[in-house]
């Protein structure tokens, strides 16, 4: 073969190879992304033809498609829209989608890889295309109780409940909420008008406070992370004693630190780690944190999930716990202030990990995907997320949390449930930025789990603005979120 022919043959081979790779990338590797691209009008037009699958809670549809007489053929509708909006999000043909409507769009629209053979069989049999349904892990009872408890107090904030052993999300509620029906009609002009009204609302109803939004200073519930880091590293035990002044000056600073009570932590000359958690004292916790390496607590926070990308499958805004620059920052960070911020989901994961003998399970909002002929196409199983602490450490921290509920002076005693061993921790975070919570100083927290001896539920509750208008936006009572958390735990345990 002469040289020009060899060159031509090789060039054609390279071109054929490039074409083969390109076609493979488009048809297989990038196919899902191309289908999901908002600029892909063919996908939008194909979506008109498909009866979108339902989103289910306890087997009942909370999001479903109904036929219309317009060119779209179907419209998305939501039952109990505001109750489940933080879970479902909304779906519109041209104006976007959020929540599970977005995260599980391929399954709901029938275009997922797992539905490939179903699509082929439907085509052969002449069956109209139809999406699969998504069964959530949510307990209707726990979700409803979370909503009712927050509404009765007129609170803004969020509630999350998890099964510590599986990671299944039993409740995920954010308030104020919104009605997804307002954003899911087939009238683009109406959707845009409603969307602008919601985005202009100063209460930010579109923010999913349970997993995203601006995040919150965790305040004293973060002391659980400090205690776990100290016990796991050997720096302390529940009985370790600390000096017990009523005020300290932070190192290399003129900034004073006091306990929330503005007194000593108990009446003794010293206070134990257990007392510090029961009474939620700042000074012993700060002294403990300053005695360790300054990255010890952030490392433990990271092991529990802080700073990590989490999908449930909704995208969760990472909680943050940066390494403090000096001992003064170590002290402030140890009580959940300074730059430490968390989602309620993250704090529920902390309690769930302690409840589950030190193992944090991956939080999961979807239980299964069900085909139109009621066959399970996908089933999601429990998956370990991390193991930040040993079972021994978890037992020690759980014991201190339980004492916070059973001690006559414990700040979490309102979480007590008759005949059930309950563990709990309260928190009251001060917002140093006057723009936070409309200038209101307190964010109120509760996190805990029950039963201690056989955990079925772990919760985290956050209430903004000191409880809101009913408390003149100045309430600092840890009882408010504790009572909400108790009611949600009772709802789960009663099922």
From TrEMBL:
Domain Penicillin binding protein A dimerisation stretches: 52-134
Protein name: Penicillin-binding protein
Domain Penicillin-binding protein transpeptidase: 157-472
Entries under InterPro entries matching the protein: Beta-lactam/transpept, Beta-lactam/transpept-like, PBP_dimer_sf, PBPA_dimer, PCN-bd_Tpept
Phylogenetic placement of the source organism: Bacteria, Bacillati, Actinomycetota, Actinomycetes, Micrococcales
Provenance organism: Leucobacter coleopterorum
